[in-house]
Write a structure and sequence with these properties.
8-stranded mixed sheet, elongated, alpha/beta, 13 helices, 311 residues
């Protein structure tokens, strides 16, 4: 039994880790692996920001060129943007610096292990281990990993066992994602997290327009800076809505669309159009999707499916 808690897993109890590169994700995962007893021996960093991040979060790690990082570790973590991953893998395979038996891990949500095929062919063990969270570049990233799910993909059951064990060691929850389902997995996460930012930003902008100029005496003025009055007004509503939908599903939907209130929705579209037609268009699209989920009234569907609400 290894320190992974898995019989016959072909990984040593204490792994030497190399990281390419020292960005937000790579350094957070590196720090988490060190807390679990592994050692980050080297990482690559080009920009001054990355070098500072590496020195701060991985102070015992050497900053080396990519080929030297790859050649001296048991676990090679490729923490580069999705668009750079294929080129990096091809380059590492061509130079022959990755030793046979090295665990090569990438943390891209969009890809499974097929993208690691050039290194698999030279004897590396491919693993895709994606933390389903947003990274800020601060110390809280590493702490949050202990409550994060990780989408894992491997070539065989031994690979899945190793990936599962690594995630459990740093306190996360492993979730198996098949190679074919990686694009859909990634699309779902992007749809939820990225579009939530846009949705909330639009809502805050509209709320600022509604509140500005009518502040109470001594109250903070409503301006375009984050963290102001508009954000404080909407935050409890957003928090409750997110909590409710995660616990109750679509039944958590409330408001005029859920009630089939066509007049209220038409009014919303009109006033949002006055603020910003693009915000109104976003409201219309999301209201239509909500109405489709709830099987809303025909008159509401007519408004949302394209009738000119300004008439």
């Amino acid at each position: 039994m290894t320190s992974f808690g898995i019989t016959n897993a072909p990984a040593p109890a204490r792994l030497s880790v190399g990281i390419v590169s020292a960005g937000r994700v790579g350094t957070a995962l590196g720090a988490a692996l060190e807390r679990a007893g592994h050692v980050v021996v080297a990482c690559s960093a080009v920009s001054e920001v990355s070098k500072h991040r590496a020195h701060t979060r991985l102070p015992e790690s050497q900053i080396l060129p990519v080929d030297e990082v790859a050649g001296r570790c048991d676990l090679l973590l490729l923490a580069v943007p999705d668009s750079e991953l294929a080129g990096l893998v091809a380059g590492l395979a061509a130079t022959g610096v990755v030793r046979r038996g090295t665990l090569v891990v990438h943390c891209s949500g969009a890809h499974g292990i097929e993208i690691l095929a050039p290194l698999t062919r030279v004897g590396a063990t491919p693993l895709a281990i994606h933390p389903a969270m947003t990274f800020t570049g601060h110390d809280e990233d590493t702490a949050r990993l202990s409550s994060t799910c990780f989408g894992i993909t491997a070539a065989d059951e031994v690979g899945y066992a190793i990936a599962q064990a690594l995630v459990i060691e740093i306190g996360g929850e492993p979730v198996r994602v098949s190679e074919a389902m990686r694009p859909l997995y990634h699309a779902a996460l992007a749809h939820g997290s990225n579009h939530l930012v846009t949705l909330v930003s639009d809502a805050v902008e509209a709320l600022r327009n509604a509140l500005a100029g009518d502040e109470l005496l001594g109250q903070q003025l409503v301006d375009a800076e984050p963290g102001g009055v508009a954000e404080r007004v909407i935050a409890p509503l957003l928090t409750a809505a997110l909590d409710n939908v995660l616990r109750r599903g679509p039944a958590a939907l409330t408001g005029p669309v859920a009630r089939g209130d066509a007049d209220a929705v038409a009014t919303h579209l009109r006033v949002l159009e006055d603020v910003d037609p693009q915000i109104a268009a976003g409201y219309r699209a999301l209201s239509l999707r909500s109405a489709q989920r709830t099987g809303s009234k025909p008159e509401l569907m007519e408004i949302l499916e394209g009738a000119d609400h300004s008439e």
